[in-house]
């Protein structure tokens, strides 16, 4: 009798444990599903002008992988550091992957970042990189299509200068302009290269 009662407690405990594990699984699944839904909304969609004054749209790069980063040339630290990491990582990419990847820098400060300014700026990191600017509303459209935040800080009364707070994530997009992956600025250039190589190899293996 005591054994039967003890077995009931054991069965009850097992059922509670299974229900707990099931709830964790469902919770994790819902988070992953939500995350995937958010990522599926990220698409490169822009109509801008490059550092040579040439009109460029996201369709220009269809058929190529793109690594996209938003910033501005007056940025004191994050932007130059990030672009330097991208340049170093780019040199470490596998030859075939490097040939099929376009690095794109989109300014969030079109008032100061003219094509001429961008040409000189991006050339410091890699003259093959593409830098884009355009009307403020076009920049906004491009940033919103990728979920990028930016906001101008208050102007300095003496110098009339200002900074811009912005997202520092780098986006890897597939040849259709759809989200493939993203990378934080904390990632080292060598790790960035490894992750890009791996992600593009995985993508190509699905074809």
Task: Please give a handful of descriptors for the protein shown.
single chain; about 210 residues; alpha+beta; Glutaredoxin; 7-stranded mixed β-sheet; two-stranded antiparallel sheet; 6 helices; globular
> What is the alpha-carbon Rg in Å?
23 Å
Which spans have pLDDT < 50 for at least 5 consecutive residues? Answer: 23-37
Strand line-up across the major sheet: 2-1-5-4-3-8-9
How many strand segments? Answer: 9
CATH class term of the largest domain: Alpha Beta
Terminal CA distance? 63 Å
Structural description of this entry:
By secondary structure, this protein is an alpha+beta fold. The chain has two domains: 40 residues; 160 residues, Glutaredoxin, CATH 3.40.30.10. It contains six helices and nine strands. The strands form two sheets. It has a seven-stranded mixed sheet. A two-stranded antiparallel sheet has the order 6-7. Helix 2 crosses helix 6. The longest helix has 39 residues. It is globular, with a radius of gyration of 23 Å.
Secondary-structure blueprint:
Blueprint: H1 2-40, E1 47-50, E2 55-57, E3 65-71, H2 78-92, H3 95-99, E4 101-107, H4 115-125, E5 130-133, H5 136-145, E6 150-152, E7 164-166, E8 170-173, E9 179-183, H6 189-206
Parallel strand pairs: 3-4, 4-5
Antiparallel strand pairs: 1-2, 1-5, 3-8, 6-7, 8-9
